[in-house]
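User: Second chain of the day. Same drill as before.
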Amino acid sequence: MNYFDKNNPMQSLLPALRDIITSPKAFFSALPGAAFHSNSLFFGSIIIFAATFIGVPFYSLGMLFMIPVIWGLSLISLWIWSAYMSWAVKNLAKGKLTTANAFQISAYAATPMALATVPYIGAIAGLWNLYMLWVALVNHCKISPGMALTIIAVPTLMLAAALFALSGMMVQLFPQLA
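Assistant: Same format as last time:
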């Protein structure tokens, strides 16, 4: 398996992407532990920038001016998800997963999110990302498929419910949005 190396980004990016996409189970099973966030941070940043550039034809060039905001918020979200995933694996599944390893898993599993800004394909990319997280938890952390699904589904459903409620409140406040 090929993994991303920040010291050789041009030589390691495409082989790592190929392995993630073509054989995620083997990729996450053999994933080495991460002591630091640097490789994952670099790889996640590439995915975020790719999503921004891929989205420009569908939206506007103004999206390019939002790169620092998109990048920062995406990395913060990735780190929060990683902290939650690390906590959930330790406390719910009684497994071992450091925050650095969880960040590494989350960054690699976010590969499909490079297509998140493409209309209609973005939803598929989001589901693919959740599937990749499930594969990583089952194969790398060696937890049961049901527990992995629970760890991923609970916050995902909570976020979906919160967004649904927020959209309902926005329609109540601004009827022209309906």
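Residues 129 and 154 are 15 Å apart (CA to CA).

User: Great, on to the next one.
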